[in-house]
Amino acid sequence: MPTESKAGPRRYTPFGTAIKAAEAAPGLYLVATPIGNLGDVTLRALELLAGADVVACEDTRVTRKLTERYGITTPLTPYHEHNAAEARPKLLARLADGQAVALVSDAGTPLISDPGYKLVRAACEAGHAVTALPGASAVLTALSVAGLPTDHFFFEGFLPPRQGARQKRIAALANVPATLVLFESGPRIAAALADLAATLGTRAAAICRELTKLHEEVKRSDLVALAGGEPADNIDDLLRQALTRVSVKDAVGEVALATGRPRREVYQRALVLARDTTDDAD
DSSP secondary-structure letter at 160? Predict the structure, then answer.
C-alpha cells in the first residue's frame, strides 16, 4: 500500500514573496538548518523543504518555527533516538514509494551529535539517493571564532555526565594533538570546566554560547581561568620545586595546602608534569 504523500502548495516565502518550489526528486535529503538565527538558512534548503514530501525532524515544534517563518507547509514527522526503531521503516517505505524525504535536526547539520546515521545507512543499502544540503554547523561556527588552531581539530561531542566517566574521557583526550571541540549543557558547564582544568591545566580554550543569537558570547582564556581558578602556572612551579625534594604524594599535599586548590586538581597537574619530564628525558 503506498505511503501518504504531502498535500498543499509547494511554496516558500524567503523575502515576503511566495515562490513556487520544484518538486524534489525521490531520495533522502540531509538539510542543515540554522543553529539559532533563522536568517542563516540557505535558499536551497528552503526550496528543498518546500518541495519534499515530508520533513523528518527531532522535534516538530522546533522545526515548525522555521517552516512557519518561511511559509512552508510540508508535513513534519518526528524522527529521534527514542522513536527511531519504529519511525525508520516508515521513512524507508516512503523512499521505496518514490518520495522525497528531508531529514533535519533541531539545529545545524543533521547527524552531527544528532540521530540519523542509521537511516542514512539503511537508505544507502536500499539503493536510494542520499544528498546533503550544506549549511549551518555549530561545530564549525564555534571553531571559527574561538581563536584556536583550525588546521587540526577533533570533535568529541558531549562529555559523559558522571564525573568519574568524564574525568576518564578527558584524560584520554589529553593526548589528542588537535583543538578539541566539545558540547556541554548549561547546568554541567562548570563541572566540566573544573575537570578539564584539572587535567589539561592552562591549555588555551574558548567558551562559545548562544552563537548567531542576540546574546552571542565568546569567552577566550585558559581552562583554569575559565573554570574560575587562578592560573595554574603557579601550581606547576610549586610542584616542580616540591618534586625535587619529596615524593609525588607529599608534593601534592604541600601544593594543595599552599594554594587552596583541590588535591585532585593538583595531583592531575603532577601527573602531567611527571609525564612531560619523562618525555623530555626520552
Answer: P
* CB-count exposure of residue 79 (10 Å: 0-12, 13-18, 19+): buried
DSSP 81: T
Cell 556541554: give the residue: 184
Half-sphere exposure of 107 (CA within 13 A, CB side): 16
Three cell numbers at 56? Answer: 523528518
What distance in Å separates the CA atoms of residue 272 and residue 121, rounded to the nearest whole number?
Answer: 41
**HSE-up of residue 278 (Cα within 13 Å, Cβ side):** 6
Entry pTM:
0.78
Q: What does DSSP say about strands 100-103 and 27-31: parallel, antiparallel, or unpaired? A: parallel
Report phi then psi at 275, rounded to 5: -65, -40
pLDDT in tens, 45-58: 999 999 999 999 99
**What pLDDT is stored for residue 217 in this prediction?**
93
Per-residue pLDDT band for 192 (boundaries 50, 70, 90) equals very high
Instruction: With residue 50 as reference, give the H or E element that holds it.
Output: helix 43-51
Q: CA-CA distance, 208 to 189, in Å (whole number)?
A: 11
Q: Which of 219, 220, 223, 180 is nearest to 198 (CA)?
A: 223
How confident is the model over 70-75, as a mean pLDDT? Answer: 97
